[in-house]
Amino acid sequence: LALAASLPLPALAQKKIVLGFSQIGAESEWRTANTESIKQAAKDAGIELKFADAQQKQENQIKAIRSFIAQKVDVIAFSPVVESGFETVLREAKAAKIPVILTDRAVNAKDDSLWVTFMGSDFLEEGRKAGRWLLDKEKNTKGDVNIVELQGTVGSAPAIDRKKGFEEIIKTQPRFKIVRSQTGDFTRAKGKEVMQAFLKADPKKINVLYAHNDDMAIGAIQAIEEAGLKPGKDITIISIDGVKGAFEAMMAGKLNVSVECSPLLGPQLMKAVQDVVAGKPVPKRIVTQESVFPMETAAAEFPKRKY
Ligand code: GYE
Known about the structure:
The protein is α/β, with parallel strands linked by helices.
């Protein structure tokens, strides 16, 4: 008996941390890899995950967060589909004393006491990297460079910042012109559809496509081929994420460069959840480290890619 009393409590008797996570949807290869990373990391960490898919709708995310509050989960984490409109529900979580972690995308609320930490990529920098790659590629050419842009989801942090960062760089040389810009909602289907419209409007003038994610670029590649043009040659294509589909397109010579944006946020999210529950301090901002993969590096990098 004395011996039994000195043994540590069996795992089952310890209270499992409960995490409520509201995911945006399944709009891209990036997003599916992000969901897998979170589910796997929760399992590995022994955290009970309540996972809700919002199907790209903010109202569904707000509903999910309210239901997590009602269920009194230990921590709420979510990837906000758009930047604005979450303040009210975040205040409700704060009033219920449930800590909130933002993953992947930011909100634009002024009161930063509404979340404990925001982990994810620097989208502004990703846009700048895309712009710098293009300026470098064209450094020995002359004349106008006409760019069409496929934006991500309207009002989302990555769409806003990837546009801003890219523009910041290209506007240093006025011959680089964004001639058309429209949202493709981060999906292949929409990327293809909008690219078809771009090509119809100006079939000869497009030199470059800048897509805010790989999926839209992959959709657009189909549209370009169907129009009888060579993607990667007749039109230079730049996109962001670095998913396997992009590496395949690069190895086929159809995509020129993909700026990396890692979806593998699961392990660091679980670490932050454990720290928050244990009352340990967590940094207010955790930035993902990332590189740029031009087409020439694709074959060597492909076997190492994890998403
Ligand atoms: O680039 C895109 C996804 O928020 C960084 O969302 C993420 C973006 C990613 O749908 O593919």
